[in-house]
Amino acid sequence: MSARAAARRIVALMRKETLQVVRDPSSIAIAFVMPLILLLLFGYGVSLDVRHLPIAIVMENVTGDTRSLFESFANSPYIRPVAMTDARRAEAALTAGQVDGIVVLRGDATRSLRGGGTAEAQVIVNGTDANTARFVGAYARGAAATWLQQDLRRRGETGDAGVVVEQRVWFNPELRSTNFLVPGVIAIVMTLIGAMLTALVVAREWERGTMEAMMVTPASMAELTLSRMAVYFVLGLGGMAVSVLMGIFLFHVPLRGSMAALLLATSLFLLGALGLGLLISTAARNQFVAGQIAIVVSYMPAFMLSGFIFDIDSMPTVVQWVTQVIPARYFVACLQTLFLAGDVWGVLLPNMAGMAGFALLFLTLTRLRTRRRLD
């Protein structure tokens, strides 16, 4: 009889939580509107792709070879060449920010090349943005190497001892940064729904006195916690479904993994995020304080240290150690693998184990911290 009564209480509490979510515009906004905004911002507004870089091509002596080299630069989707004949004018354009780099072809460059010598070209790069500067240098070298190979073929010669390098890009052959960013945004969305929304809602119940009213009912603290987790778990899965559908059909990000693996990874992360949100609410019974704590301990680490944007292997060693305690790191790795590579269990299983460990830790701490007391 007690088990049946407990089941009825849990169902009633879940109904109460569902009605509270439906009637609360802020909960709907965090669960569904904010994911839409984040995905649209990062899907359309943020791009790590560097294309159409303006580069000044200074041709001191315009010949057929220099024009051919200029066309090689123009054929690259990453470069927008600007023809110039004066190096000082090009340097002024670089200083003014009108171009990101300069390629200087000396007047005797082609004559030296045809005579069997070495043709030198100077590449000047604006180092204000180190990332763009590296791209400018790499693209300039790539365009020049392509032109040289084509020129050798036209003359029936071979270069580089007959070695031809053919590049193959796995998992993201188009090199679209959107394919990399969207799965990471989904992890941020799940962090918001799981940790921040749960912390705010429970803290609000303490502020409004609803929690005190619930504590005088026959329902135990375990039943209260379980009912909340069930409702917000379903809400999180709904936000995940919306995010995945947007990623596939709006941003055309491929989903090469199985839905079962995606559901499993999402469930493990959501359990941990919900446990963290409930743990925060036990320490802060004020919405403002709970929100600030959730941002500091969940959202910001997920944004900065999960590998969502910044490569973890490029971080200092100490920071890499810190990322080991960021649950979103493991979820981002799972999502990027599932979307771009497929069910690679050698990657998925260790990261799922990490998320399961954090879920168990946060839920255990929440259970220990949750007491039927008002102090």
List the helices and strands and how they pair.
Blueprint: H1 2-23, H2 25-45, E1 53-59, H3 64-74, E2 79-84, H4 87-95, E3 101-105, H5 109-114, E4 121-125, H6 130-154, H7 177-208, H8 210-215, H9 221-250, H10 259-283, H11 287-305, H12 317-323, H13 327-340, H14 345-369
Parallel strand pairs: 1-2, 1-3
Antiparallel strand pairs: 3-4
Textual characterization of the structure:
The structure is a single chain. With 375 residues, the chain is α/β, with parallel strands linked by helices. 67% of the residues lie in helices and 6% in strands. The protein is built from 14 helices and 4 strands. The chain has helices at residues 2-23, 25-45, 64-74, 87-95, 109-114, 130-154, 177-208, 210-215, 221-250, 259-283, 287-305, 317-323, 327-340, 345-369, and strands at residues 53-59, 79-84, 101-105, 121-125. It has a 4-stranded mixed β-sheet, with helices on both faces. α9 (221-250) crosses α10 (259-283) and α13 (327-340) packs antiparallel against α14 (345-369).
